């Protein structure tokens, strides 16, 4: 089978293919994924690379992220072959479930492989509609290293698995874009931002207090500190408060995807507290 592990020196091919498909992933994101799970991503190669797939695994959960096949190589079941290899890998790692985000066009292929839709996700690329000035807010402060354990526990309760390594990595990479609300020694919510060479990402964005003012403060704390390039977000469509906050941005592009799972479901509990997803390639 002409499949091998994706390596650092393949990233130029991957970025070129991503750009041709109109997506906006960046070198730093791909390098982060390879660093987190060096054996989890694959290239389909004959005389030249023709497609790739990325996978990240946590303790019991695999996440399939990017799957792109070169336009001139489509119709040869290369995508199916790459998905089969990714599922084999996650099985070898002992996962109980595999998650992915699928477009409407791609969802049918995954249904045939035993995936089912858990939720619909509203995706937006937007820009700030005007200058935002960060405001003081009761309990709002930057995330510190000592907060990461409690934040990871909250994330595990909502996601359904331990992503403490991911949470710590995002904070180490972007400490100035990570905020929390804490009252009486209890963390009520947090929001993390990321900046790439051409855009920004918001997520995870979580609030368990049920107060819309808390949700708004966490959103504004990150967005106000981002530059004027586009902001990418993914939001569960049932979270009306999150959609309301996102409407403060000027949309450049919007679309919808299906959060799909095979095996044990994740995000099965308090999805109303998950206002912004960490990233389609990270779960």
What does this structure look like?
With 283 residues, this protein is α+β, with helices and mostly antiparallel strands. The chain has 2 domains: 3-95, Aminopeptidase (3-Layer(aba) Sandwich), CATH 3.40.630; 124-276, Gcn5-related N-acetyltransferase (GNAT) (Aminopeptidase). Helices cover 30% and strands 34% of the residues. It has 8 helices and 13 strands. Helix 5 packs across helix 6 (164-173).
Question: Could you provide a short overview of the structure?
Answer:
It contains eight helices and 13 strands. The chain has 283 residues and is an alpha+beta fold. It has two domains: 93 residues, Gcn5-related N-acetyltransferase (GNAT) (Aminopeptidase, 3-Layer(aba) Sandwich), CATH 3.40.630.30; 153 residues, Gcn5-related N-acetyltransferase (GNAT) (Aminopeptidase, 3-Layer(aba) Sandwich).
Secondary structure: number of strands: 13
Q: Provide the gyration radius in Å.
A: 19 Å
N-to-C span = 28 Å
CATH class of the largest domain reads Alpha Beta
Shape: globular
Number of helices: 8
Structural class by secondary-structure content: alpha+beta
Are there runs of 5+ residues with pLDDT below 50, and where?
A: none
H/E series, N to C? EHHEEEHEHEEHHEEEHEHEE
* CATH architectural type of the largest domain: 3-Layer(aba) Sandwich
CATH topology (level 3) name of the largest domain: Aminopeptidase
| Estimated helix fraction | 25-40%
